[in-house]
Amino acid sequence: MARIAAGLSLRDVGRSVSLHHTVVGRIERGLYPGVTLTQLACLCAAVGLDFSARAYAGGDSIRDAGHVHLLERLRGNLHPSLGWRAEVPLPIRGDQRAWDAVISCGSNRLGVEAETVLSDVQAQTRRATLKQRDGGLDRLIILVADTRHNRDSLAECRESLREAFPLDTRRILSDLRDGRIPASDGILRL
Question: 161 vs 132, 140, 185, CA distance in Å?
Fold first, then answer.
């Protein structure tokens, strides 16, 4: 530890940064959840360390307004008898994944994964099918923004996706507008 290597006691460091020595000890042990970035920077400086911070992605989430609008367009196409929930966590303790939406009809549940831009269709559909497996939902719909780029991306891999996602936009929308969960998985462009 830098404090010990510098020959400083908890009291020495605490005095130099205006914190009680017990608070300094708790921070060192990771037991002080109220520590601020400023306090960390001051503590590091007091023991001869440079302080830096980094941010990391914490999992999938609704990323932008386009994503929200795409989901709302789908919601506007649902029969009133169908249930709708957004950002539904998977029922696995500690798992940070969530469905963008879940549509329900009685005990049948349909997971919705929305993509505004298809970048790696295979990876995006693989993540969704793993989520379906782990989340225990009956059906899966990949909701894709109907853009030229996305249509071209889907056309390139249409044959490889057809077996896993046999239903198309027309059939999916027909079922949802009539108050039914589709009979199979599919890709829906809106």
Answer: 16, 13, 11
Cα gap 25→22, rounded to integer Å: 5
57 located within any domain: no
Read off φ and ψ for residue 161, nearest 5 degrees.
-90, -20
On whether the CB atoms of residues 111 and 135 are closer than 8 A, the answer is: yes
Q: pLDDT digit of tens for each residue in the chain (190 aa)?
A: 789 888 999 999 999 999 999 999 999 998 998 899 999 999 989 999 998 887 755 554 555 788 899 999 999 999 999 999 999 999 888 888 889 999 999 999 999 999 998 888 888 888 888 888 898 888 999 999 999 999 998 888 888 888 888 999 999 999 999 999 999 999 999 9
Total domains in the chain come to 2
Please list the residues that pair with 187 across neighbouring strands: 142
Residues 42 and 69 in one domain: no
**pTM for this model (two decimals):** 0.66
CATH code: domain of residue 99: 3.40.1350
Phi, psi at 58, each rounded to 5°: -105, 15
Q: Does 114 fall in a domain?
A: yes
Co-location of 32 and 72 in the same domain: no
Residues 102 and 179 in one domain: yes
